[in-house]
Amino acid sequence: MNNPDPQVETVIDLNAIAHNVRILAQHAGDAAVMVVVKADGYNHGAVEVGRAAIAAGARELGVTTLDEAVALRTAGIEAPILCWLNNSDADFGRAIAADIEIAVSSVAHLESVADAARRLGQSATVSLKVDTGLNRNGISQIEYPLVLELLKRLVADGTVRFRAIFSHLANADLPQHPVNDMQRDRFLDFIATAKDHGLQPELVHLANSAATLTRPDLAFDMVRPGIAAYGLSPTPEISDFGLRPAMTFRARVALVKRVAAGEGVSYGHEWTADRDTTVALIPAGYADGVSRILGGRFSVWVGGELRPNVGRICMDQFLVNLGENESGVREGDEAILFGGEAGVTHPQEWADTLGTIHYEVVCSPRGRTVRSYVGDSNLGVNQ
Fold it and tell me: Which residue range is the domain that position 164 belongs to?
């Protein structure tokens, strides 16, 4: 007996991922493209997105942690992989053995990588993440000379291979913000200082999604887009750049019922029917990634049109008002919470309502939400 369709799921369009990567490659010009697939591919599936991105022309993949990087290798992805956020006591030997490029942000990090390389008897591939003004992860200007002196010795004795210098922008979503130019200038100074120490990086990279799409002067040797690869514009007030959202968040209607005028619905009766009406019960709630704050402030595409949520959002369900239900919505019909299709609520609309960013919106589906894939069978598989 076949299992029934999941009640709530995210559907990831791998053809949309490929489309977005090609757009980013066009904006990157001669620069290579590294697609960032951290946090399980922004909740889209790191392995499947990674395969689709590489097939569409991306040259490399980027993640935060060692575990994320090793998982991609274990899945059979052979493209270069960079990880850039680990404690100095991480098991760097696993990364070295899997041919993972390791970014270091301090002397302590570099020493730990070198110790792991010596124990393994294998050279480690290392990049320097430098802090040009975000003041988050990255080598400070004060510690940089110490890192370079150590790196020079390690390169000389074959303990490490020096691959790249990179940094991250603080205000790229405001293309003309002066901090972008300040960070570019500091980045160039970091590169020049490394060369003064006899260290020539194989490549340098700085641009995130926003800079890739709006600041071609910051492309350098490679761009490092994240959110744009998933079809969401990093600067929606400027343009959508032709990107296609890859995630559709949907559920199957669990119940359709009449509600009499004067009756309240859901906890607290925050909404009362002003006339006889019909409601549809959607089996997704805040445990599945539908924020309780959205209550009464969003609509769902069902029966060929947008229908407003009414009443309080619960842990596993909420209601939408169908009115006279002229579309004939029935139990089991598809209800799209957000997605990239015409007429459907866009993730940016949820972000605006919640006072957050669309990154958080697409990272929200969880719990009982099942992920599946559509698109070219060569770019990914269902799970």
Answer: 31-230
How many domains does the structure of the chain reveal? 2
pLDDT tens, the chain, 383 aa long? 345 678 999 999 999 999 999 999 999 999 999 999 999 999 999 999 999 999 999 999 999 999 999 999 999 999 999 999 999 999 999 999 999 999 999 999 999 999 999 999 999 999 999 999 999 999 999 999 999 999 999 999 999 999 999 999 999 999 999 999 999 999 999 999 999 999 999 999 999 999 999 999 999 999 999 999 999 999 999 999 999 999 999 999 999 999 999 999 999 999 999 999 999 999 999 999 999 999 999 999 999 999 999 999 999 999 999 999 999 999 999 999 999 998 999 999 999 999 999 999 999 999 999 999 999 745 443 33
Same domain, residue pair 200 and 274: no
d(CA 280, CA 30) in angstroms, rounded, equals 51
**Contact 283/252 with Cβ under 8 angstroms?**
yes
Residue 49: C-alpha distances to residues 10, 14, 228, 266 (Å):
14, 7, 13, 38
Query: Residue 222 pairs with which residues in a beta bridge?
Result: 32, 205
For position 275, which CATH number holds? 2.40.37.10
Does some domain include residue 382?
no
H-helix segments, the chain: 14-28, 38-43, 46-55, 66-74, 92-97, 107-120, 144-156, 178-196, 209-214, 347-354, 358-362
Is 182 found in the same domain as 274? no
Assigned token pair, 43: 């909740």
Active site residues: 38, 267
* Overall pTM surpassing 0.90 (yes/no): yes
Cβ density class 85-100: b for 16+ within 10 Å, e for less:
bbebebebbbbbeeeb
Pair (335, 212) in one structural domain: no
Phi–psi pair at 97, nearest 5 degrees: -65, -30
Distances (CA, A) of 10 to 234, 257, 282: 21, 26, 15
Distance from the Cα of residue 37 to its chain's centroid: 6
